[in-house]
From TrEMBL:
Protein name: DeoR family transcriptional regulator
Keyword annotations of the record: DNA-binding, Repressor, Transcription, Transcription regulation
Keyword Protein biosynthesis on entry: no
Pfam families, per database record: DeoRC, HTH_DeoR
PROSITE patterns attached to this UniProt entry: HTH_DEOR_1, HTH_DEOR_2
PANTHER family from the UniProt entry: GLYCEROL-3-PHOSPHATE REGULON REPRESSOR, HTH-TYPE TRANSCRIPTIONAL REGULATOR SRLR-RELATED
Domain spans labelled HTH deoR-type: 3-58
Amino acid sequence: MLKKERHAFIMHQLNLHNKVLSNDLCQIMEVSEDTIRRDLQELSAAEKLIKVHGGALSLSFSEVQFSSDHLYSPEKKRIIAEKAVSLVENGMFVLTGGGTTIVEMAKVLPPQLRATFMTGSIPAVNEYLKHPSIDVVMIGDKILKDSKITCGSEAISKIRQLNADICFLGINAIDSKSGVTENDWEVANLKREMIEASKKVVCLSISEKLNSSQPLRICGLDKITHLITELPPDDKRLSDYHKAGVIVL
């Protein structure tokens, strides 16, 4: 790959997954660690990403509140958010993860909605606090600075005490065979616990993440009740998820 092609690939992966790992980029592009290190340094100097130990983060993670200036596919995420909100009813206990699509969902919650939202995501909490009538519960513990979400044994212990009506997860990758996958160990552990603590599990994903996978497996499709993308439910790309018994919106 030419440098321009490598940079474009890195930025596309970053836009899709919000985080990239240097080791993964080396394997996929078949280049050396030094090459990837230089690429990330150049993209960081150009203020296109945030270079961290072992990889890079999307610029959307540069602030406690995700910046709309750096939001990837905002129109698609707004469609997903509006579909997701249709599943929330008054009186529900709602458990949510983090990520830009979850924040978009928080922005379009109906002002008259009365429900309890529980999360360890600081950007999500910031949006929930703007709502006039929902209750907000912060699941606290050590904070992952990269993703701005709480993690650790205390957070997991609190999640295990929950019996949420519904859980909304912004996901990194999903495939009909591999299921839901992640690239962050601690986030993956949290998501597994959130799934087990909820009666319904809704995955939110732009269509570009369909039929892709990351190194860490969270669960199979049998644990997922709903999948929401920006596509119409009868789109051919969603047929495998229908066959697996997932409700597709």
